[in-house]
Amino acid sequence: MKHRLALVGGGLLLTLPVYLALANFQPLEDLFLYHDAWTVFKPLFLAGNAIGIHDDGAIVETTMFVVSFLIALAIVALLACGITRARRERNNA
């Protein structure tokens, strides 16, 4: 239980830096500015009854925060696995 709580806590701590990295990622910004990336979010806009650009922006921001949390959680889980593996190898040597 403590291990899972530590993973989620680490994921929450890294969510904002990952979100800022995604928000400043130029290819992602270009995708929204110069291509039709908004069509990917159309089902979410319809499900959320989005009216106007402010509701659309809120849905995109929420989606980015969820994706940022999942990426941060994956980073923390990979680091935890690496640390556990290193400890096992050190103890077995």
From TrEMBL:
The chain crosses the membrane at residues 64-83. Keywords: Membrane, Transmembrane, Transmembrane helix. It comes from the Bacteria. This is Uncharacterized protein. It comes from Trinickia symbiotica. The lineage of its organism: Bacteria, Pseudomonadati, Pseudomonadota, Betaproteobacteria, Burkholderiales.
